[in-house]
Amino acid sequence: MLLQVEQVGVACHTGARSCFYRSVDLGDDSLNYRREVIHEVYRSILDRKENPKDGSYTNYLFDEGVDKILKKIGEESSEIIIGAKNDDHENIAMETADLVYHILVLLAEKNMPIERVKEVLTERMKEK
């Protein structure tokens, strides 16, 4: 079953529409920052795992465990599918960011460095 939904209300525990609402001062180095942003997010997730903070959504996911993390990955994947079906590029970008975040939480939960994923991708590029 596939459902198309319209968001009503907030999705983030802070009361924001999305958990990804904070602006980041990129200064003059915005291109380099964009290249490194996934690493920055991953480091932030690892820090939250090592230094839990009350009210943190990331810590909520860690506390709930791998089943909850996987459920969120499934939900975000479905939302990307709906966005793609509707040719909604903004939605695709937002939901892909949500999916990447939840995948990074899974990697942290499983103690897998992001470098391992990069190694696999590099090997696949060599095969082409």
From TrEMBL:
It catalyses: 1-(5-phospho-beta-D-ribosyl)-ATP + H2O = 1-(5-phospho-beta-D-ribosyl)-5'-AMP + diphosphate + H(+). The keyword Protein transport does not apply. Keywords: Amino-acid biosynthesis, ATP-binding, Cytoplasm, Histidine biosynthesis, Hydrolase, Nucleotide-binding. Its EC number is 3.6.1.31. InterPro entries: HisE (IPR008179), PRib-ATP_PPHydrolase-like (IPR021130). It is found in: Cytoplasm. GO terms for molecular function: phosphoribosyl-ATP diphosphatase activity. Pathway: Amino-acid biosynthesis; L-histidine biosynthesis; L-histidine from 5-phospho-alpha-D-ribose 1-diphosphate: step 2/9. Belongs to the PRA-PH family. This is Phosphoribosyl-ATP pyrophosphatase.
